Amino acid sequence: MDMQAPAASRTTRRARGLTKVYASGEVEVHALRGVDLELAHGELVVLLGPSGSGKSTLLNILGGLDTCSSGSVLFRDQPLGAMDERMLTAYRRRHVGFVFQFYNLIPSLTALENVALVTEIATNPMAPAEALALVGLAARLGHFPAQLSGGEQQRVAIARAIAKRPDILLCDEPTGALDSTTGVLVLEAIEHIHAELGTTTVLITHNAVIAGMADRVLVMADGRIQEERRPPRRIRARELSW
Amino acid sequence: MRPLNRKLLRDLWRLRAQVIAIALVMASGVGLMCMSLTSIEALGDTAEAYYERYRFADVFARVERAPEQLAERLRLLPGVEAVSTRVVKNAVLDVAGFEEPVIGQLVSLPDDPASALNQVALTRGRLPQAAGECVLAEPFATAHGLEPGMKLRAIMNSHWQELRVVGLGLSPEYVYTIGPGALMPDDLRYGVIWVGGKTLQAAWDLEGAFNDVSLALLRGASAEALLPQLDQLLARYGGVGAIARKDQLSNWFLMNEIEQLKSLASILPTIFLAVAAFLTHMVLSRLIAVERSEIGLLKAFGYTDRAIAWHYIKLVLGIGMVGIVLGCALGWWLGLVNTRLYAEFYRFPFLLYAPGPAPFVLASLASLGAGLIGALGSVRAAAALPPAEAMRPPAPPLFRRSGLPAAGLLRGLDQPSRILLRQIARWPVRSFATSLGIGMAVAVLVSAMMWMDAIDHITDVYFLQAQGQDVTVGFTDPRPRSAERELGRIDGVLGTEPLRMVPARLHAGAREKRQPLQGVPARQQLQHVFDASGHALEMPPGGLVISTMLAQLLGVKAGDLVEAEVLEGRRPRLQLPVAATFETYIGSPAYIDIDALNRLMLEQDSITAVQLRLDPDRRQAVFRRLKETPRIAFITLKDAAVHSFHDTLARTLLIYVSFFVVFACTLAFGVTYNAARIALSERGRELATLRVLGFTRAEISYILLGEVGLLGFAALPLGCFMGYLVARIMVGSFTTELFRIPLAIQASTYAVAMLIGLGATLASALLVRRRVDRLDLIAVLKTRE
Ligand SMILES: Nc1ncnc2c1ncn2[C@@H]1O[C@H](COP(=O)(O)OP(=O)(O)O)[C@@H](O)[C@H]1O
Ligand SMILES: [Mg+2]
Predict the structure, then answer these.
(1) Which of B24, B31, B48, B598 is 20 to 30 Å from B532 by CA-CA measure?
(2) Does the pLDDT at position B61 exceed 80?
(3) A57 lines ligand 1 (CB under 6 A)
(4) Are B62 and B71 in contact (CB under 8 A)?
């Protein structure tokens, strides 16, 4: 995977006719039923939809964690579906930043070390301390996860995700486990990073209020993208509340 | 089925790999214990039945010549039930097709064999009826391919005499048969021959007389009380001191073997059961940690603390049952193998291997006990969990920077290595226990393989370095010095050295010990008096040089006086100073300068044996001449002695060592596999997260298995050290008057033990690695811990 994208393309990921069928035993679950999607460089997309509508499945496929049952995802003209396990690992390592609902920090590493964990294996990372400063945690570098609040842990997770300068940041319900005030702080961090680094960001939520901060909102239901809208005006995260 | 019991079965099934790993370790312990206990029982029962059925005597005495009427007087001694007299003589044999000299112990048979003591258990043919007929000891016959109907020749008192084989047999007196100067049975060169009629009496001019007497005692009579009276009666007939059954050579070896099995039954199984207890503890604590909220829920529903505790105890009992069933089956089989191996050296006409329930019950209880001790802490913790707290997830583990004493060490390390090290430092006790467990495997190996080193060492020091002779020729009675010169003149003999052996009883204060005095030249040229540390000792002109074992038995040290009560010739009582003591592995010898000894005996220069050095090309010629030489009681070939000692023992030991390699691998496997599986269960989420972040399988395996690997490496020196300690304990418990096992563990033994330990650790780590590769990446993102 070379780093030079074709100059003509402003699209970073292109999904066509994605389906995903989970066959667990006798029941087949159709998690995705034909999704077409294009992500442009630098946009902040919110995926909105009720629980079980297929948001995480779509995000996982985009992030190279999961493979689709049919259809294709193109990354710089390369189909993710054609990559083997090793190449997918390399893809995640170089190009994707993940933020999860439950932070998933390594308990035995400090905030700084959790970030360093990823920068060590990246090609052109920023300094871990710099990443933590971006999310407003410059003062908590030496703390272990058990010594941080949920919101702080999530901001460490964001710093960890963006420190390697990924070209896409995938956040799956990053505020799902947080109260409104703390959640806003986390969203502010994501917004700040998006503004500073211009990283393409996909943010999953079932909370319609959060959709206000997006460039583009995709509403999912029952494994399909049901509606796409562009809010007339982006609302600052600080002004959100639920 | 009650739902909780169903859960129990599912848990056992889900944890089956770990359950089996623990059960295997338990089974090793149970198996070893059963093996030792069933062998003890089998050997004990067999010996007892054998002794009883074939009337093994209680007291034995040798004289030069005593009239047959003396037997009547012996029968009247208090406590004596029966008396058997006979003639026992050593003789050089000529066995067709065997060049080297063979020594036979010729034993006369009584007129009425059915009522005598020490009866022959015929395995083929019949008992002799006429003069010149004989029964051969079965092992000797088998070694030479001799069968009833064949013939062999023996030099009886200077004359060749032909013996016709009419049967093969065994005797309770010769369960373990070793020739003079030998340490192990050598059925080719030494055998027992029961000769019928008055053949021996006629050959040695012993008509109406005997030179050997056995006595059976009435039930409850004490041999110790009889011995002094017997010695007094026999002294004038050349008695060299009667011995009780416990000191009879064959029986001594057999009983000593049983004693050693007892120490084996306790030392090694303890290691395995201790590790099994630790593994049970590890697995159960993890299970209970995972099931915290279920426990809380059950309690909220009204289950009592006892019901919860009983539930987990049943799980441990379940693991224990698997271990016990495997272990008992293994133990039964090992016991049989072991007993059969013994039967190669200890010859019985029948083998009673019908172990009762006792060994199995005992071993099972021990292993269940170990499992329950291991479970105790975690079960109690589970029972004590307050329901409300149990239903909250446990707080994430708090790591500290100061967790590692040398935090500076971390600087410059990559994050995965930090994770690995902090993990160890966060649970130091568990980590240490894991190392200890793997170390135990290495220790078991070291303590098993050290036996090989020990026999190598004994062979080297006792035989190769100390013994420069090729052959030792022993005479039936003391001979003048000229006998040595005569042997020296044989073509092919390059050098000779005299030996004068005088039977004696040594006294020091109230202590005494039957120990012949060995007169050797002041400076030995062939057979050296060798210290265990490899120094040749010179004989001081007027004193004894005694082994430390003898010094210990008599409670004397260099400079003290020892009284030697000589048991032949004029029977002088000599006051001899102890000039020096030395360490040796075999026996408790006492040496003295040969000239000094002859002076003290007030005799002409006499000798009882000669050491010979041979021209290797003319050995056969020398052997032919020796076979023609009269009045020879034994001929010991050093090569053969080395061979029978080293190779026979090594072959047997190899069987045991290979058992122990399997056991040790089981141990290392059980510990490593469980440690890695538990780490994986605790940290699966963490590892999957790393995979999501772009770490490769190899990189996350490094974090998980690197931890186990590091603990494994730390275990190696620990294991070697523990192996050394266990070896010391074993060597200590195997020390007898007759043998000391040198603690001479070779570097290569440690190396091999470490390699095997490491190999087993690696193999089990690889099994877990397969699971690491199958981590579900998506599931971890959804669920909270
Ligand atoms: N591993 C799986 N096996 C079977 N069904 C699954 C699996 N993962 C997700 N699903 C199903 O796929 C559907 C979409 O799931 P998901 O993408 O997680 O939804 P969302 O993130 O929008 O809540 C749901 O019905 C869910 O039950
Ligand atoms: Mg979801």
Answers:
(1) B598
(2) yes
(3) yes
(4) no
**Residue A210 corresponds to which tokens in the numbers above?**
């959060």
pLDDT at A9 over 60: no
A119 lines ligand 1 (CB under 6 A): no
B7 touches chain A (CB under 8 A): no
Question: Which residues are registered as beta bridge partners of A14?
Answer: A38, A74
A223 lines ligand 1 (CB under 6 A): no
What's the confidence (pLDDT) of residue B33? 92
The pLDDT of residue A202 is 96
Chain A residues in contact with B689 (beta carbon < 8 A): 100, 104, 106
Given this model, what pLDDT does residue A1 score?
A: 40
**pLDDT above 50: residue A189:** yes
Predicted local distance difference test score (pLDDT) of residue B175: 95
CB neighbours of B738 closer than 8 A, spacing ≥ 6? B252, B256, B586, B587
Domain at A42-67+84-239, CATH class: alpha beta
- Domain-wise residue ranges, chain A: 42-67+84-239
The pLDDT, as a whole number, for residue B577 is 94
Chain A CB within 8 Å of residue B399 CB: yes
Tokens 């593994």 -> residue: B279
Nearest-Cα distance to chain B for A108, in Å, is: 6
Q: Do B529 and B591 meet the contact criterion of CB atoms below 8 Å apart? A: yes
Q: Which residues of B touch A100 (CB under 8 A)?
A: 689, 781
* Percent above pLDDT 70 for chain B: 97
Residue A29 in contact with ligand 1 by CB distance below 6 A? yes
- DSSP secondary structure letter of residue B187: T
Distance CA A73, CA B101 (A): 91
Quote the tokens at residue B775.
Answer: 């981590």
Choose the closest CB to A108 out of B399, B689, B780. Answer: B399
Mean of pLDDT over chain B: 89
Q: Is B366 helix (H, G, I), strand (E, B) or coil?
A: helix
- Preferred mutation among B400, B414, B693 to probe A, highest tally of A CBs within 10 A: B693
Residue for token digits 């271990």? B323
- With an 8 Å Cβ cutoff, are B414 and A120 in contact? yes
Asked whether A55 lines ligand 1 (CB < 6 A), one says yes
Provide the 8-state DSSP code for B77: S
Residues of B in contact with A56 (CB under 8 A): 778, 781-782
B68 vs B158: which has the higher pLDDT? B68
Share of chain B above pLDDT 90, in %: 52
CA distance B47 to B256: 13
Q: Which atom of ligand 1 is nearest to the CA of B779?
A: 1
Question: In this model, does residue B770 exceed pLDDT 70?
Answer: yes
Place of tokens 């020390």: B735
Residue A107 φ then ψ, to 5°:
-65, -25
- The whole-number pLDDT of residue B569 equals 82
Burial class from Cβ neighbours inside 10 Å (0-12, 13-18, 19+) for residue B1 reads: exposed
3-state SS assignment for residue B475 = strand
B628 and chain A in contact, CB less than 8 A: no
* Beta carbons of B517 and B504 less than 8 angstroms apart: yes
Q: Tell whether B393 is within 8 A of chain A (Cβ).
A: no
Look at residue A5 and tell me whether its pLDDT is greater than 60.
no
**pLDDT band (50, 70, 90) for residue B206:** very high
Is B282 strand, coil or helix? helix
Q: Which helix (H) or strand (E) holds A220?
A: strand A216-221
Q: Residue B699: its chain A contacts at CB < 8 A?
A: 121
CB atoms within 10 A of CB A188: 18
- pLDDT of B740 reads 87
Q: Could you tell me which of A224, A228, A172, A170 has the C-alpha nearest to residue A18? A: A224
